[in-house]
Amino acid sequence: MGRRSRKQRPAEGGRDERPPDANAGMRRGYARSAARNEEVRRALAPFEEGERPAVLVISAAIAALLGVGNVAAFLAGVEVQGQKADLIGVVLLAILMLAAAWGMWNKRYWAVLGFEALLGITVAFAALSLLVASNLAALALCLAIMFGGGYLFYRLVRVMARLQTPRRKA
After folding, report:
1. 93 partner at 20 to 30 Å CA-CA among 29, 65, 73, 142?
2. From its phi and psi, is residue 65 left (phi > 0), alpha (psi between -120 and 50) or beta?
3. Cα-based distances in Å from 141 to 6, 11, 12, 59, 146
4. How far does the chain reach from its first CA to its final CA, in angstroms?
5. Which among 41, 55, 47 has a CA at the least distance from the CA of 154?
6. What whole-number distance in Å separates Cα of residue 148 and Cα of residue 126?
């Protein structure tokens, strides 16, 4: 018969032999991380009344162009894979994009968050599309969407942090 491994019993006296503060290193790491986070939060300043960072303006312009461009393409009779687009889908996407553009222009957190979610989904689809890219033009388009969308996503994270920063009383 084989020997079964068993959990080691505590030493005499019924106490465990581990040092009393075995997690001290982990707590120090959390404390350092919390201190760094607090320092970054203190450095963030809310946006001034008319201040709009360039990345927010660019994102709002892209959303507006997508909304208007979709309707224009539908009215021009553009077909996708030999079929005309559905009117309801075009209108819903246009409303969504124009609402996001308006919200980002007016520095609304929900609009930036929603646009970032759409950017993340778009970047993921572009990355998956690399698997079926059959020519250099498709490859270039996928890479452009991935890197452009990824860059916008990365830059909008700080904008979102500043949008959430409360105004400090002087």
Report:
1. 142
2. alpha
3. 60, 66, 70, 19, 9
4. 78
5. 55
6. 11
Q: Which of 8-12, 54-58, 125-129, 148-152 has the lowest mean pLDDT?
A: 8-12
Neighbours of 39 (CB within 10 A): 9
Strand partners, 84: 79
Alpha-carbon dihedral sign for residues 8, 13, 18, 21: positive
Give the residue, 34 or 9, on which the prediction is more confident: 34
pLDDT band, residue 31 (cuts 50/70/90) = confident
Tokens of 78: 């553009």
The total number of residues shown for the chain amounts to 170
